[in-house]
Design brief:
It is a single chain. Helices cover 25% and strands 25% of the residues. The strands form three sheets. Strands 3-2-1-6-9-11-12 form a seven-stranded mixed β-sheet. A three-stranded mixed β-sheet has the order 8-7-10. With 184 residues, it is of the alpha/beta class. It has five helices and twelve strands. The longest helix is centred in the N-terminal third of the chain and has 17 residues.
């Protein structure tokens, strides 16, 4: 199967889980696994994402963790910028209908300890399948970024193998509602 076919299949499966009310349950369990993860516990500066539609929702991190600085991505041309985010900050919809903060972007990516990335599915080689725009893969190539890259997906969306292109960047951890997989 090619990437576009996989995107369609796993977007539809995730939408089905969402309609059945299961994404909320899965998100809660993934959030618990993140909070118990040693790499997350040690992190001070965390980039995560605002969920769109049926995506895993980790906004509860803001309510449960007080010793970290949080950031959300902002699409700027072909690239991602990172902007500070705290509870109560105003969010605006971008062209992809994703909420983004209005705070000023941070220039120094070296401060990030952890990047929690959205994905439609992932494989046991720690490759993720995103939406095909390449924002995160371009972001991951930044020479100043040394943060642990975490994929969050439902367990049933972990595949043996997904097609890879030369520009795809693998991640360091996969966190599901049932398990934490480490690529070290």
């Amino acid at each position: 199967m090619n990437k576009n076919e996989l995107r369609k299949i796993y977007k539809n499966r995730r939408d089905e889980l969402f309609l059945k009310g299961k994404i909320t349950e899965i998100s809660t369990l993934i959030l618990k696994n993140i909070l118990n993860n040693e790499y997350f516990k040690a992190a001070k500066n965390v980039l995560f994402f605002c969920p769109k539609g049926s995506e895993i929702n980790l906004l509860g991190l803001i309510d449960k963790v007080y010793d970290k600085n949080f950031f959300l991505p902002v699409c700027c041309g072909e690239n991602l910028e990172i902007c500070p985010f705290k509870k109560g900050d105003k969010l605006v919809l971008n062209k992809y209908k994703i909420y983004e903060p209005e705070t000023k972007p941070v220039q120094n990516l070296e401060i990030l300890d952890t990047v929690i990335t959205p994905a439609l599915c992932a494989d046991k080689n720690f490759n993720r399948l995103g939406y095909g725009k390449g924002y995160y893969d371009r972001f991951f190539t930044n020479k100043n970024l040394s943060a642990k890259k975490i994929i969050v997906i439902p367990e049933e969306f972990l595949l043996d193998c997904i097609p890879q292109d030369r520009f795809d960047i693998s991640c360091d951890l996969i966190i599901t509602e049932n398990n934490v997989y480490e690529n070290f």
